[in-house]
Amino acid sequence: MSVLAFHLPEEVWLQVFLLLPDEEKMSIRACCKYFRRLIDRPSLWRNRAVVLKKIRSYNSQFWATLRRRKISTVVVHKAGIREWESIVMSLPWLTAVTIEQCSDEEVLKTLQRFNSLKKLVIRSSQCPSGLASALTPLRQLTHLCLCELQRAPRTELISAVSQLADLNSLFYHEGDKPISKRTFQGMLARLPNLKQLSLKMGPGYGTLPEDYFSLSKTNYSKTGREGLNQNGLGLTRLELLNYMDPMLSPRALEPLMSLQSLTVGYRDRVMEPGRCNLRAWLSKLPCLTELTISRGYPLGVYVHSVPWTLQSLSLLQVFMHPGDLNALGNQTPNLQHLHLDLCSYDGQSGLQELPNLFPKLETLKLRHCYMTELEFVGLAQLEHLRQLVILDAYQGPSPALLKLIQKLQVKTNYRVQVIHTPKARDPTACLCSQY
Asked: What domains are there in the chain, each with its CATH number?
């Protein structure tokens, strides 16, 4: 490298390094002390998660590097009390911790020593008997995810969660059946700041009460929330996983008037349109701007109920018939973000009309294998398109796809970022929520 390169301002190098994947940053870091110092700057590692495995093999230099980078998020696999002591001593300022495969009650007690802890994810674990008592002191938590816990004492857990009044995000994926109405409403009434809720509904259960999401006046008065809207919760984001009708009634979501984002992950595909409660739900959500549907009913069953307020739509493993895309375009004139990963009876017919149907699209995710060259290059007509994600270039782009991308780039004067490599999985995320 030219000596002149080292005379560039550090700010310029930092901006360059921000654009690089971690592997390339590590290669450059090994070049010299100057780059090592720059790449260890905390600004390059903000909001990045470090996965910790076989912690006993880490030496003092490793922990010193994490301290220099001010790492605040970690994912910990199969660690005992000794390993957790090392984490607490080296990174006491952690704000987000994900624990995987832990059944040691003493380990959970160490969480109290992270005074800045805001986000806690516990997943894929044999639930220790002391989990509830370990959660109770963590009053500062704003995000909690309990996922795939085996033999969890539901009553004790929900009682502990109910005491975390600062929670604004709760992912409760414990058990194989939904929480009873009385217990569910009692918990939510004590979480006044909750905005995001994710529930794993479980297999066939029957129909829950129609007012499942409507808190009673009794619940409000017990918790001093009389001044709030008593028609329901203040949720803005709701996720229903492993769901099948008729577990919730057609009117179940009516109290959630402030809902802005809805995700429904059906357990399987459903072909009987008469059972679809999604149509009724969508017609009663005036603030909805984001919708994600996985599996479930064919698009045509509910397409005419999709609200015009939508700005972001994801359809994953959903059947689409000819004409459904046209109907969707008529329903969503303001759509800016579209993710299509369909199971279509008739290919992905209608994609040539995308620029006319969704003229405001800024991001688009889809498979290219069913698209003709005319359809693919025709995406250049989307004047606001900034990012195109190709979902089916698993082994890297083929020569034919690269040619199509080049033609699209030329037509758009290279304003569209085309992504064809799979996005890395967020190591801190709940596995239930990932498609």
From this structure: 1-41 (1.20.1280)
